[in-house]
Write a structure and sequence with these properties.
Mean pLDDT: 89
Strand content: under 5%
Protein name: DUF3397 domain-containing protein
Transmembrane segments: 6-26, 38-56, 68-86, 98-120
Distance between the termini: 40 Å
Radius of gyration: 17 Å
Helix content: over 70%
Keywords: Membrane, Transmembrane, Transmembrane helix
Number of strands: 0
Organism: Chryseomicrobium palamuruense
Low-confidence stretches: none
Structural class: mainly alpha
Number of domains: 1
C-alpha cells in the first residue's frame, strides 16, 4: 500500500507527469494527436484539482477545498448563462466537455501561480532570516 500511496502522491504533486504519461500511452496505442491531447488534459484535470488544493493549503490559504469548489461552480454557472444568452442549443455532453477543458486551463494557471507564489514566499523567508 505504501508504494501505491507514493505513486499517487507524485502524480498529485506533479500533475504534468500525468499529462505526459497519458499522452505517450495514447501515442503508443495509435490514438491521433488531437484526441490523445484532449484525453491527457481530461485525466490531468482530476490530478490538478487535488494538486491546486494541496499547493494552496500548504501556502496557508484558508478553506482551500471549499473555495476551489465554489470557484469551479461559479465558472460552470457563468458558462451556462453565456451559452443560454447566445441561444446555443447544446447538450449536456458538450457543456460538460467545454467546462472540463476550461477547468483544465484554470487549474493549470492556478497551479502554476501557486508554485510561483510558494517559491517567492520561500525566498523572502530565507532572505529575511
Amino acid at each position: 500500500m505504501n508504494t501505491i500511496e507514493s505513486i499517487l502522491s507524485v502524480f498529485i504533486i506533479f500533475p504534468v507527469l500525468v499529462f505526459i504519461i497519458v499522452w505517450f500511452i495514447g501515442k503508443m496505442m495509435g490514438i491521433r494527436k488531437k484526441r490523445r491531447t484532449g484525453l491527457a488534459a481530461d485525466i490531468t484535470t482530476i490530478a490538478l484539482f487535488f494538486a491546486v488544493a494541496i499547493v494552496y493549503d500548504s501556502l496557508s490559504f484558508p478553506n482551500v477545498m471549499t473555495n476551489l469548489l465554489l470557484f469551479l461552480v461559479l465558472i460552470a454557472i457563468i458558462l451556462v448563462i453565456v451559452l443560454w444568452k447566445n441561444k446555443s442549443d447544446v447538450g449536456p455532453r458538450v457543456i460538460f466537455r467545454l467546462l472540463w477543458r476550461i477547468y483544465f486551463l484554470v487549474l493549470s494557471i492556478l497551479y502554476f501561480l501557486g508554485w510561483v507564489f510558494g517559491i517567492f514566499q520561500s525566498i523572502t523567508e530565507y532572505v529575511s532570516g
